[in-house]
Specification:
By secondary structure, the chain is of the alpha+beta class. It has three domains: about 110 residues, 2-Layer Sandwich (Translation, Eukaryotic Peptide Chain Release Factor Subunit 1, Chain A); about 110 residues, Nucleotidyltransferase, domain 5, CATH 3.30.420; about 120 residues, Ribosomal protein L30/S12 (60s Ribosomal Protein L30, Chain: A). Helix content is about 40%, strand content about 25%. The longest helix has about 30 residues.
Length: about 400
């Protein structure tokens, strides 16, 4: 199973590759599973090279042939594929054209062999590896409205919102009261049937549905579930019933929070608890809460950090670069990868580059600090990113 850091870095690499575009169908994606012989791949590439020699466009032909040559040159260093296989992404990009050549080792084994030449890299098989395995269904209901949603990792999404026509309370008595009560129960039955049909549809078609949380004010939620409105397969997945004050989109967050004990291992609950602890230390003015790049880095190097939290929305890199013309060098944290020499106004050559999240993960490991990536999709992730610059920590002890 991937750690949050590994998943984050893999996702960032795919996003980087996804942003690359070729002028024509000249970007090559080559998927090699672990059981494929390198000699067979080389034979296939020689065949592709021969066929590509017939491409009419001189520039496209030249770019495709250069890409195939690059892959074949790199393949000669391998006696066999790595344990999880490997994927080549190679092609000429930009103006003037520059060769992009990336070899990605998937985090888990791939089982397809595929060669594709297109105007963009083919990433779908790798993107599927990032899909969250555990998904929880969320159902809120009372006699006025109902909301259905999903909890995936730390992301809460609303899938459906419905309102009812069930009459409210009245002050009539006698026969009018009994007739009104019958009409109310008929309307409630129709309402429950409507919600049940929608919930069955959404929950049954959802892959990897691990469980379902049911919430709402009062006894209506149990009345609904105990009735014959939900498919038996859905009923078997119900984890528990939770009291919430709302049954709209806001209630979905309230439901997840109420179910925190049952979802102890879910990312959103862990993120919430960490951020609440951090915010409490700030309120107490205990000196144990710290935030900001320089402050957290210094505390990590001292070994004073118990847990460090980094937002997955950070777009910063630790870069060492040098100008090929005048020799000017830089070494620091930057928000973009493409650096220009301030003296020569030309692109600088990148000597080293590391995502800042990876940088802090390594610092945390060296000092035995707990490291957490907080997703920005959650409320806590938004607070960390906007209010505290995306990097914060809780200290083991106060530092001056």
């Amino acid at each position: 199973m991937l750690s949050k850091t590994e998943k984050y870095l893999f996702k960032k690499k795919l996003e980087e590759l996804k942003s690359i575009r070729g002028q024509h169908t000249e970007l090559i994606s080559l998927y090699i599973p672990p059981n494929r012989r390198i000699s067979d791949v080389m034979a296939h590439l020689r065949d592709e090279y021969s066929q590509s020699s017939n491409i009419k466009s001189k520039q496209t032909r030249k770019n495709v042939l250069s890409a195939i040559e690059s892959i074949m040159a790199r393949l000669r260093y391998f006696k066999e594929p790595p344990p999880n296989g490997m994927v080549f992404f190679v092609g000429m990009v930009g103006e003037p054209p520059k060769l992009v050549a990336e070899i990605v080792e998937p985090p888990i084994p791939i089982n397809i062999y595929l060669y594709r030449c297109d105007s963009q890299f083919y990433l779908e098989p790798l993107e599927r590896l990032l899909e969250e395995k555990d998904v929880y269904g969320l159902l809120l209901i009372d006699r006025r409205e109902a909301t259905i949603g999903f909890l995936t990792g730390s992301r809460i999404e609303m899938a459906a919102y419905m309102t009812s026509r069930v009459p409210g309370k009245h002050k009539k008595g006698g026969q009018s009261q009994r007739r009104f009560e019958r009409l109310t129960e008929i309307a409630a039955h129709e309402w429950f049937t409507k919600v049940g049909e929608k919930a069955n549809q959404l929950f049954l078609e959802k892959k990897n549905l691990k469980g379902i949380l049911v919430g709402g004010p009062g006894p209506t939620k149990r009345e609904f579930v105990n009735g014959n409105y939900l498919d038996y397969r859905i009923k078997k997945k119900i984890i528990g019933f939770y009291d919430t004050g709302y049954t709209d989109e806001y209630g979905l967050r309230e439901l997840v929070s109420s179910a925190s004990t049952d979802l102890e291992q879910m990312d959103i609950i862990r993120d919430k608890k960490l951020m609440q602890k951090f915010l409490n230390e700030i309120k107490k003015n205990s000196g144990l809460a710290i935030y900001g790049e320089k402050e957290v880095r210094k505390a990590l190097e001292m070994g004073a950090v118990e847990v460090v939290m980094v937002s997955d929305a950070l777009e910063k890199y630790k870069i060492r670069a040098k100008c090929k013309s005048c020799g000017y060098e830089v070494n620091g944290i930057f928000e973009k990868v493409d650096l220009t020499c301030p003296h020569c106004s030309i692109p600088m050559g990148i000597l080293e580059r590391k995502d800042i999240v990876e940088e802090y993960a390594e610092l945390a490991e060296k000092s035995s600090a707990e490291f957490e990536i907080i997703g920005r999709e959650s409320e806590e992730g938004e607070i960390l990113y906007k209010a505290f610059g995306g990097i914060a920590g809780i200290l083991r002890y106060k530092i001056e």
